[in-house]
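Troubleshooting log. The previous structure file for this entry was overwritten by mistake, so regenerating from the original sequence record. Sequence copied from the archived sheet and checked twice against the printout by T.R.
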Amino acid sequence: MGKHSVKSLRINGEVQKEMSIIIRDELKDPRIAPMTSVTDAEVTTDLKYAKIYVSVFGDADTKEKTLQGLRSSASYARHLLAKRLNLRNTPELEYKLDESMEYGAAMSKRIDEVISHDEEVIRERGEEADME
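Regenerated output below.
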């Protein structure tokens, strides 16, 4: 089974979907922020380990506390995942913070700032040409 085989991609997708539901509905740790979403899951080909990428809305402290809560409840989440998915092995869960959404939002904001600056410069040049 290759790294990006159809079976591997399907398993990754199912793990991502089920972990989203588990984190949202089943884990009751107060450290886990309510605005936590699973952005991706990468399961090794031998099904022994899974990296779960999560995006957390909030400040750095909220993110760190959420990761602590997820890590402390990893064995329970793994147990729930085993009940939901019929896999030969249920992977050990490792949580990783995914900041790509925040990076994208920051880049989008910067692009908008550059566009508005350019439009302002064009307007100023147009007014200067009208005055001449």
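Helices lie at 6-26, 60-72, 74-84, 100-131. Archived copy saved in two places this time.
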